[in-house]
Amino acid sequence: MTQSNYRPTLAIKFASMQPPEAVDSSALAGFAGNNAEVAIANNLLLYPGEPGEMLVHLENLGDRSLRWRLEIKIEGKENLHLDWCSWRQEEAEEIAGHQKVDLPLYFQIPEDYLKINLF
Predict the structure, then answer these.
(1) For the residues 53-65, what does the mean pLDDT come to?
(2) Domain ranges of the chain
(3) In whole angstroms, what is the distance from residue 115 CA to residue 21 CA?
(4) Which residues, listed in sequence order, are joined to residue 11 by a DSSP beta bridge?
(5) Can you spell out the DSSP letters for 37-98?
(6) 58-69: average pLDDT
(7) CB 29, CB 13: distance < 8 Å
(8) Does the structure show a pLDDT above 90 at 115?
(9) Cα 104 to the chain's mean position, in Å?
(10) What is the band of 48 on the pLDDT scale with cuts at 50, 70, 90?
(11) If DSSP codes are grouped into helix, strand and coil, which group holds residue 14?
(12) How much is the pTM?
């Protein structure tokens, strides 16, 4: 009897949709395997009252289909709110082997954010 060591690999890239002069780095990549949590940081400059957008680019590097779901968790930032970020994904989705998927993330910080948090 042989055991399979199949480990699916999902390439993840984040790219700011802002003009290049507004951001220090335009993209950062990471890889996730089975049930892995991958912490990835990217510079996205946001201004209160102005919309921001980031593109999540996923690529299944394996031969088999994978199910995936995007979850965003903000830790250690008391003044940041998850409802400032939105995306459209109702339930886990499937990505076929060697398939690519793009998912836009939209950001909107309230216009009065600086007034509330600085004074």
Answers:
(1) 92
(2) 10-118
(3) 26
(4) 31, 59
(5) -----------TTSEEEEEEEEEE-SSS-EEE-------S-TT--GGGEE----S-EEE-TT
(6) 92
(7) yes
(8) no
(9) 8
(10) confident
(11) strand
(12) 0.64
Q: Taking Cα atoms as reference points, which of 67, 81, 10, 18 lies closest to residue 40? A: 10
Q: Are 62 and 8 in contact (CB under 8 A)?
A: yes
Q: Look up residue 52 and give its amino acid.
A: G
Q: Do the Cβ atoms of 44 and 54 come closer than 8 Å?
A: yes
Name the average pLDDT for the chain.
75
pLDDT at 47: 81
Separation of alpha carbons 118 and 104, rounded Å: 30
Read off the amino acid at residue 56: V
User: What is the three-class DSSP state of 114?
Assistant: helix
Is 8 in contact with 33 (CB distance < 8 Å)?
A: yes
